[in-house]
Write a structure and sequence with these properties.
The complex is a heterodimer of chains A (about 200) and B (about 270).
Chain A: H1 2-11, H2 29-55, H3 57-64, H4 69-94, H5 98-128, H6 137-169, H7 175-201
Helix pairs in contact in A: 1-4, 2-6, 2-7, 4-5, 4-7, 5-6, 6-7
Chain B: H1 3-9, H2 25-48, H3 61-68, H4 71-83, H5 86-98, H6 105-135, H7 141-156, H8 160-175, H9 183-196, H10 215-242
Helix pairs in contact in B: 2-4, 2-5, 3-7, 4-6, 5-6, 6-7, 6-8, 8-9, 9-10
Membrane topology (chain A): Multi-pass membrane protein
Catalytic activity (chain A): 4 Fe(II)-[cytochrome c] + O2 + 8 H(+)(in) = 4 Fe(III)-[cytochrome c] + 2 H2O + 4 H(+)(out)
Pfam families (chain A): COX3 (PF00510)
C-alpha cells in the first residue's frame, strides 16, 4: 500500500522531500529484513497448522465453527481501514502536509486500537464457554497464533504512537521513519488476512 | 570481568610476552570460552545422555526408568553442574558490549538478572532432577516419571524466563545510537524472544505439536535459536574487534602514546 501511495505521489508530479528521484525502498532496510523474516516464520507456522489440520479435518472444522466469525470480520475491516489511513498519512507526510499526516495517523491508531478491544470480546466468551488452549489441537493453534499476532498488533500501536510523536514534535520529520512504521503496520495487516482466512473461513 | 587480573599483569608489561600485553586480553579469553562451553553442552546433551532432542512426554514407564537410571545421565549431570560457572562468562562477554551502547543501564541489569534466573530454573533444576533420578538404583518408577516431567518442564517450560532478557538485548540493539551491534540483529532477537513464548503451551499439551518435544514448541524454536546464537557470537566478535582501545574500561593502564585518535561516542 505504501508503494501505491508513493506511486500516486510521484504521479502527480510532486517532488520527494529528500530530493532523490526514481524508485527506492520505502523505510529502513532493516525493517524489510524483519518483515520478510517474520512472514517466513509465520509461513512455517501456517504450513504446520495445515499439516495438523489435514490429519484431523473433522475435528478442526467442528472447532472452527465455534469461533465468532462476526467479530473476526469486523476486526478485518478495522485493520484494513487502519492500513488505508496509514497509507494516506504516509502520502501526506511525503508531500509535506504534516498536520494532515498527524490527523490521518491518529485515525489509523484509533481503528488499530479497536482490534485488541474486539479481540477481548472474542476471547472472554470463548474461554468462559470452556474453549481453552487445552480443549484440542485446533484451539491451541488458534490461541497461540492469534496471540502472537495480537503481540504484533500491540507493538504496532506503539510504533504508530512513535510515528505520531515524530510528526508532531520534530520540526523536520524523518520520512523514512514514517515509512518504516507504515511498512510494519501493513505487515500486521497481511498476517491477519491469512490468519482470518485459515482459522475462520477455510472449509 | 577480568580487569583486575589484567591490571596485575600490566606492571610486568615490559618483560611479559606480547600476547599478555594485549589490551583486550580479558575480553578475548571470555570470548573463546563461549565456543568451548557450547561444544561441551552439545556433547553432553546429545551423544552422551540423549537428553536432547527431548524425549516424548508420552514415553512408557520402562523407557523413562531406562533413561533416568543410566550411568551416562549421571555423568552428564555431574559435568554440567561442574561447568555451570562458564555460563556467566558467556553472558559477561555479551554484557561488556551492551554496556557500550547508548541505552539506559536498566537494559544490561535486566540481561544480567534475566540470565541468572533463567539459568537457575532452566539448567540447575533439570540437572538436579535428572541427576537425582540416576543417583540411586531402585527408585519407584512413578517417582522417576515425576522427576522426568519435572526435569523437562524446567528445561523447556522455563524458556519464558529468557524472554524478557532477550527482549532487553534486542531493544538495546535497536535503540543504541553507537551502532555497537547491527540493527538487523535487534530484529532477529525480536523473533528469538517471541519464540521463547512458545514455552507456555508446553505446560498444557502432553502430545502433538505443542508438547515439549513438539514441532511448534521445540523444533521451530531451535531452528531460529541455533543460527541466532552463532550470529550473535560472530557479531560480538566484530564488536570486540572494532572497539577502540581508549574505550576499554582498563584504558588507563594502556600506554597513553599507543592510543588512537578519539572519536565522540554517545553515553547512557
Amino acid at each position: 500500500m505504501t508503494e501505491v501511495a508513493q506511486g500516486q505521489t510521484a504521479g502527480i508530479g510532486e517532488p520527494r522531500r529528500d530530493g532523490r528521484t526514481g524508485r527506492h525502498l520505502p523505510g529502513e532496510g532493516s525493517m524489510w529484513f524483519f518483515v520478510i523474516g517474520d512472514l517466513v516464520i509465520f509461513g512455517a507456522y501456517f504450513v504446520a497448522y495445515m499439516f495438523y489440520r489435514g490429519q484431523h479435518p473433522d475435528l478442526f472444522l467442528q472447532s472452527q465453527a465455534r469461533l465468532n466469525q462476526d467479530i473476526g470480520a469486523v476486526n478485518t475491516v478495522m485493520l484494513l481501514t487502519s492500513s488505508l489511513f496509514v497509507a494516506l498519512g504516509t502520502s501526506a507526510a511525503r508531500s509535506g502536509k504534516v498536520a494532515d499526516a498527524v490527523r490521518l495517523f491518529v485515525i489509523a491508531l484509533g481503528f488499530g486500537a479497536a482490534f485488541p478491544l474486539l479481540k477481548l470480546f472474542e476471547y472472554v466468551p470463548e474461554v468462559t464457554a470452556g474453549l481453552t488452549p487445552g480443549t484440542n489441537a485446533f484451539f491451541m493453534f488458534y490461541y497461540v497464533m492469534t496471540g502472537l499476532h495480537l503481540c504484533h498488533v500491540l507493538l504496532g500501536l506503539v510504533v504508530l504512537g512513535f510515528v505520531v510523536r515524530e510528526l508532531r514534535i520534530s520540526p523536520n520529520p524523518r520520512i523514512s521513519f514514517v515509512e518504516t512504521g507504515a511498512t510494519y503496520w501493513h505487515m500486521v495487516d497481511v498476517l491477519w488476512l491469512i490468519l482470518f482466512a485459515l482459522f475462520y473461513l477455510m472449509r | 570481568m577480568n580487569e583486575r587480573v589484567e591490571v596485575a599483569d600490566n606492571p610486568a608489561a615490559g618483560t611479559s610476552p606480547s600476547w599478555r600485553r594485549h589490551p583486550k586480553l580479558d575480553q578475548w579469553i571470555a570470548f573463546w570460552i563461549v565456543p568451548g562451553f557450547f561444544t561441551l553442552f552439545g556433547i553432553v546433551f546429545v551423544p552422551l545422555s540423549f537428553m536432547m532432542p527431548p524425549r516424548s512426554p508420552g514415553s512408557s514407564t520402562p523407557e523413562i526408568v531406562g533413561f533416568m537410571q543410566s550411568h551416562n545421565l549421571l555423568i552428564a549431570c555431574a559435568i554440567l553442574t561442574l561447568s555451570f560457572g562458564l555460563a556467566p562468562i558467556t553472558n559477561a562477554c555479551y554484557v561488556m558490549q551492551v554496556k557500550r551502547m547508548s541505552v539506559s543501564p536498566v537494559f544490561r541489569y535486566t540481561i544480567i538478572v534475566g540470565a541468572t534466573t533463567g539459568a537457575i530454573v532452566g539448567m540447575l533444576f533439570p540437572m538436579f532432577c535428572f541427576g537425582l533420578g540416576a543417583f540411586r538404583t531402585g527408585y519407584d518408577p512413578p517417582i522417576l516419571a515425576m522427576l522426568f516431567d519435572f526435569g523437562y518442564l524446567a528445561y523447556i517450560g522455563s524458556l519464558g524466563c529468557f524472554c524478557i532478557m532477550w527482549m532487553a538485548f534486542g531493544l538495546a540493539i535497536l535503540l543504541d545510537r553507537n551502532n555497537i551491534l547491527p540493527k538487523w540483529l535487534g530484529y532477529y532477537t525480536v523473533w528469538q524472544y517471541l519464540t521463547e513464548l512458545m514455552a507456555a503451551p508446553v505446560w498444557i499439551a502432553t502430545s502433538g505439536p505443542f508438547a515439549w518435544d513438539g514441532l511448534m514448541t521445540f523444533w521451530f524454536a531451535m531452528a531460529l535459536y541455533v543460527p541466532w546464537q552463532i550470529i550473535v557470537y560472530l557479531c560480538i566478535y566484530r564488536a570486540i574487534k572494532n572497539q577502540p582501545v581508549h574505550e576499554l574500561e582498563n584504558a588507563q593502564f594502556v600506554v597513553a602514546s599507543s592510543l588512537p585518535a578519539t572519536r565522540p561516542t554517545a553515553h547512557a
